[in-house]
Amino acid sequence: MLNKSSSLPYLFRFSNLNTEKRVTHFISGKSGGVSMGPCSSLNLGFNTEDLPENVLLNRRILAKNLGIHPHQFVFARQAHTGTIAMIEQTHSGMGFENPDTAIPDTDALVTNAPGVCLIVLVADCVPVIFYDPVKHVAAVAHAGWRGTLKEISRHTIQTMRSQYDCLPSDILCGIGPSIGPCCYEVGEEVIQAVASLPFNTKGYLRESETAGKAVFDLWAANRIQLLEAGLKEEHIEISCQCTKCNADTWFSSRAGKGNTGRFAAGICLA
After folding, report:
1. Are the C-beta atoms of residues 112 and 269 closer than 8 Å to each other?
2. In this predicted model, what pLDDT tens digit does every residue of 243-256 receive, in sequence order?
């Protein structure tokens, strides 16, 4: 990942996507906003213990730094559903000022509409950014453990293919900062959920030193899904940034014991 020059202290981009001139993508860091306390400082999530006016101002700060108008952004009301929404220009601005207008119960957004900036918000879950430079199609996905087990990364690729005739081998992908295998110990609920899946989940879980626990490797799981969907290995970039280990840079729910802000991953077609 690259740290691009900006008045924001941290505004990250993937190397593989950064060479594409017809698309703007980013992952926002934790610093550069106005929020205080556990949500300090560039908190972009309304569904937090932050003042709504702070969140809105932070979003405007982000938009100004990106050179993208606020009404170009589209937010999803994420619910770990695995649902994927097709986004058109008529959706522009949804969720930016009011979370009630965000795309409901959705965890991935796909578009071929220029000027629409797709956004997901995270604080330990995996943000995944997709771009097909041949068909000029973009997508973002929010993959927590539930979304990962619902194969949201694989299904996002399939949606790009079915709706826009994208070839998986053309698609570039970035797996963003999230809680890493160094820190993501899970219990019986998740272990049993993985074991009950009707497909091969080898590589999803690792052994833990704690009895009755396992380590969930979200990066590996989503990478496996992308490869199985037909992406080329060299087209997948993983940030390898653990949000819990780097809680000074990223918001982390585990580091904040459930009380923290949200950072954003986004992509906008020119």
Report:
1. yes
2. 999 999 999 999 99
The tokens for 161 are: 């293919």
Strands lying side by side in the sheet with 84-87: 84-87, 108-111, 137-143, 126-132, 172-175, 236-238
In the numeric block, which tokens belong to residue 28?
């926002």
CB–CB of 103/91 below 8 Å?
yes
106, 76 in Cβ contact below 8 A? yes
DSSP secondary structure string for all residues of 65-125? HHT--GGGEEEB---S---EEEE-GGGTTTTTS-GGGSBTT-SEEEE--TT-EEEEEESSS
Look at residue 63 and give its three-state secondary structure.
helix
| Residue type for position 234 | E
**Can you tell me the distance from the alpha carbon of 93 to that of 60, in angstroms, rounded to the nearest whole number?**
12
Q: What is the pLDDT of residue 10?
A: 80
Three-class SS of residue 18?
A: helix
